[in-house]
């Protein structure tokens, strides 16, 4: 049976609620705009939490909008910049699943269609409401015969469509949960990248903090090999709030603590330390998932760079204690996780790598010994792998090789690369 993916639009495919954003545009010069904004948001939240019927909320919001076609054009331009980060980086998934990835929304086609079609979503697979306009182009209502304009509209629509396949629902609202409650879909994934509603998450089969997570748990092709929301980023000590904001916005799972607590040692993937914080050799030796450390100060005095090399941990620090480094260092850490960049690292060869599309990037950290690159490339040749590009730099006893491939590969390739003598750490980036 085919898999079908029923995806919500507002606060799921995009980061925002489109009608709320439309109100900000259409009422920008209205003397009572703040009060009207608040009332529109209230209708939205009551409906999303299942406390008000969808039709009541929709009618209430549309009546308050005072919007026209010109406002809609501005809204579309705005929404194109507000596509959720994890959806934006997984365009390839939609290209490969253009027949079965559908948008089903209580929003309106007038703004949904131009936003999602650049992502290979077919117009015939977009199900949403439509506005009614007067001769001057003002919104005066909506098509009340559309099942999506009514309470339980998504359930009514799917019953009409009678899809023959396994259906997965992804959304942030109560109407998305109703699909699961009706028994029409296989599983419901509560999408929380933009907003988390307790009334929805407590009823979901899975909570998915990103579209990457959804693809990962269902073993589907994705832009990155491992969801960033599964990478624990621990911030310890006196670190400005902006650093946490940068890392959270990038999608990492951030925890802020006064000290490096024992319970985090074995699971931490990224560690950002305030000046004066210390990591012992014993803690480092057990931090097997740790990929990168950022230090707001001179790292050499507070952790062993030698041990970091032995474990393949990339360190970024702030020897000159510049104020901007509270932002710069977390960005360098994120660039390493996201793209493999080691530029400005304290202990690793400095590589600033190009971004690539439709390819795989493999990172091989090893001891800088003769013949190791020959072993790496012999394995690629033996597996008939076509290398798009390859980057290698060394620094002291560390070698760092980045290989981009444009073809699928067997899992045995990864096992062979990991088993090369003098391998320190291996990672599939995407």
Automatic annotation (TrEMBL):
The keyword Ion transport does not apply. The lineage of its organism: Bacteria, Pseudomonadati, Bacteroidota, Sphingobacteriia, Sphingobacteriales. Residues 361-430 form the ACT domain. NCBIfam families: HAD-SF-IB (TIGR01488). Pfam families: ACT_AHAS_ss, HAD. It comes from the Bacteria. Pathway: Amino-acid biosynthesis; L-serine biosynthesis; L-serine from 3-phospho-D-glycerate: step 3/3. InterPro entries: ACT-like_dom_sf (IPR045865), ACT_dom (IPR002912), AHAS_small-like_ACT (IPR054480), HAD-like_SerB (IPR050582), HAD-like_sf (IPR036412), HAD_sf (IPR023214). It comes from Rhinopithecimicrobium faecis. Its EC number is 3.1.3.3. SUPFAM superfamilies: ACT-like (SSF55021), Formate/glycerate dehydrogenase catalytic domain-like (SSF52283), HAD-like (SSF56784). One of its GO terms (molecular function) is magnesium ion binding. PROSITE patterns: ACT (PS51671). One of its GO terms (cellular component) is cytoplasm. It catalyses: O-phospho-L-serine + H2O = L-serine + phosphate; O-phospho-D-serine + H2O = D-serine + phosphate. Keywords: Amino-acid biosynthesis, Hydrolase, Magnesium, Metal-binding, Serine biosynthesis. Its cofactor is Mg(2+). GO terms for biological process: L-serine biosynthetic process. The keyword Transport does not apply. This is phosphoserine phosphatase.
């Amino acid at each position: 049976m085919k898999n079908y993916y029923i995806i919500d639009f507002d606060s799921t495919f995009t980061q925002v609620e489109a009608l709320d954003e439309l109100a900000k545009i259409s009422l920008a010069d209205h003397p009572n705009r703040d009060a009207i904004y608040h009332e529109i948001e209230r209708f939205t939240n009551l409906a999303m939490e299942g406390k008000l019927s969808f039709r009541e909320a929709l009618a209430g919001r549309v009546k308050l909008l005072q919007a026209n076609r010109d406002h809609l054009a501005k809204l579309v331009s705005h929404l194109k910049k507000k596509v959720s980060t994890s959806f934006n980086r997984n365009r390839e998934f939609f290209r490969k699943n253009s027949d079965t990835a559908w948008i089903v929304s209580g929003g309106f086609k007038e703004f949904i269609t131009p936003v999602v079609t650049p992502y290979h979503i077919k117009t015939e697979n977009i199900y949403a409401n439509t506005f009614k306009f007067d001769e001057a182009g003002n919104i005066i209502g909506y098509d009340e015969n559309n099942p999506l304009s009514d309470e339980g509209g998504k359930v009514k629509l799917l019953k009409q469509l009678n899809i023959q396949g396994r259906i997965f629902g992804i959304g942030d609202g109560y109407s998305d949960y109703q699909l699961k409650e009706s028994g029409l879909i296989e599983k419901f994934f509560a999408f929380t990248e933009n907003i988390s509603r307790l009334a929805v998450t407590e009823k979901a089969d899975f909570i998915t903090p990103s579209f990457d997570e959804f693809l990962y748990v269902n073993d589907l092709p994705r832009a990155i090999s491992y969801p960033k929301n599964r990478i624990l980023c621990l911030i310890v000590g006196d670190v400005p709030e902006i650093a946490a904001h940068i890392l959270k916005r990038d999608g990492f799972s951030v925890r802020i603590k006064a000290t490096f607590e024992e319970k985090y040692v074995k699971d931490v993937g990224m560690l950002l330390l305030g000046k004066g914080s210390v990591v012992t050799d014993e803690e480092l030796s057990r931090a097997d998932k740790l990929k990168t450390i950022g230090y707001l100060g001179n790292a050499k005095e507070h952790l062993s760079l030698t041990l970091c090399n032995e474990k393949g941990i990339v360190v970024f620090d702030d020897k000159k204690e510049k104020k901007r480094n509270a932002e710069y260092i977390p960005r360098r850490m994120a660039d390493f996780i996201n793209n493999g960049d080691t530029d400005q690292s304290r202990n690793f060869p400095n590589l600033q790598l190009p971004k690539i599309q439709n390819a795989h990037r493999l990172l091989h950290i090893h001891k800088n010994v003769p013949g190791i690159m020959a072993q790496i490339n012999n394995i690629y040749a033996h597996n008939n792998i076509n290398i798009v590009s390859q980057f290698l730099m060394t620094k002291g006893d560390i070698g760092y090789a980045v290989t981009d491939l444009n073809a699928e590969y067997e899992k045995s390739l990864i096992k062979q690369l990991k088993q090369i003598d003098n391998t320190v750490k291996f990672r599939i980036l995407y």
